[in-house]
Design brief:
Layout: H1 3-11, E1 20-23, H2 28-41, E2 46-51, H3 59-73, E3 76-80, H4 92-111, E4 114-116, H5 121-134, E5 147-148, E6 151-152, H6 160-170, H7 186-201, H8 205-231, E7 236-238, H9 239-244, H10 247-262, H11 273-277, E8 284-289, E9 293-298, E10 301-306
Parallel strand pairs: 1-2, 1-4, 2-3, 4-6
Antiparallel strand pairs: 5-6, 7-10, 8-9, 9-10
Helix pairs in contact: 2-6, 5-7, 5-8, 8-10
Length: 312
């Protein structure tokens, strides 16, 4: 057993006897992940999911490759072919991501298993750098987590070079996505231009980005405990208590209550903490916040709810 296999097994994100749906594009990282899932969980408990978006000339060739590899590994392959978006003027990558994870979650729920994605440490660096540029939020710099509900990322501790080495050692072929060289997408520009520039500035640039994310994640646990100590399990808070907190903690409290109301991360709401704290102590007043979240103060107690949809 290789060092990579031992470490993945020790992490427990893939486990013997635990069903798993592997997001399988046919690329190097997902091929490595699929092979590891078979080794750790057992081939009878692994299902590969390939999504053929039909947007690239090589899409059908990718699908055929995935069918061949799944057959060689002796595992089931599910193929999802979503209808193309009505317009490509929007965020095609966001549409593709939603299709991919929705199909995977549906399949995993049917098997009562996890969904495994092949994100690597290299992807983590690119994600953090993108969020650094696009989101003024400390939470954005924490990067991707190893587990989020059913979703697991067993390869976050390994580089893209390591997954390629594993595939070569195992004699596993993979497909290259020609769009990775395109400058049309922000992630590609970060991968092909920004990361090399940072490595020229300092050879340990990628390692330092990952180390910073780990430090912030550890500190985030402390901050989460501090927020919970103020909320004490409540989904509402006295305005007087909110105003008494240091400004940074006030932002975190508002963000936590907004996340709960939205049922998902409501990025950026914490930056409106001053507006929430300015609500009156008497009567009833509300302020509408990003992500369809509303903060309502009623006789000095503030609660967060979803903003009602507009009537048409």
């Amino acid at each position: 057993m290789s060092d990579l296999e031992r470490r993945v097994q020790a992490d427990g994100l893939l486990a013997a006897g635990r069903r798993v749906v592997v997001l399988y594009s046919g690329g190097c990282d997902s091929t490595c992940l699929l092979d590891l899932a078979v080794t750790v969980a057992g081939r009878d408990l692994v299902t590969a999911l390939h999504v053929n978006y039909g947007l690239r000339a090589a899409a059908d060739q990718d699908e055929r490759h995935c069918r061949l590899t799944a057959g060689e590994l002796g595992i089931a392959l599910a193929v999802h072919r979503p209808a193309a978006p009505a317009s490509r003027a929007g965020n095609v990558q966001a549409w593709a991501r939603a299709e991919r994870y929705t199909a995977a979650d549906r399949l995993a729920r049917g098997h009562d298993g996890d969904v495994a994605a092949g994100h690597t440490a290299t992807d983590q660096v690119e994600t953090i750098l993108y969020r650094l540029a696009s989101s003024p939020s400390r939470r954005a710099l924490l990067g991707m987590r190893p587990r989020e509900g059913r979703l697991v990322r067993p390869l976050l501790g390994f580089s893209r070079a390591q997954t390629a080495a594993h595939c070569r050692d195992r004699g596993l072929a993979w497909r290259e996505d020609e769009t990775n060289a395109s400058g049309a997408y922000a992630r590609n520009r970060i991968r092909n231009a920004l990361v090399p520039a940072l490595e020229q500035a300092h050879p340990a640039a990628q390692a330092n980005v990952l180390a910073l994310a780990e430090i912030l994640a550890e500190e985030a646990q402390v901050l989460d405990e501090l927020v919970e100590s103020v909320l004490d399990g409540r989904d509402e808070l006295a305005l007087a208590v909110l105003r008494a907190q240091p400004r940074a903690l006030r932002r975190l409290i508002v963000q936590r209550l907004a996340d709960r109301a939205a049922g998902e991360p409501a990025a950026g709401v914490g930056r409106r903490a001053a507006d929430v704290a300015a609500l009156p102590d008497t009567g009833t007043a509300s302020v509408d916040l990003p992500h369809r979240v509303r903060a309502t103060a009623d006789r000095g107690i503030v609660r967060f709810t979803r903003t009602p949809p507009l009537r048409t």
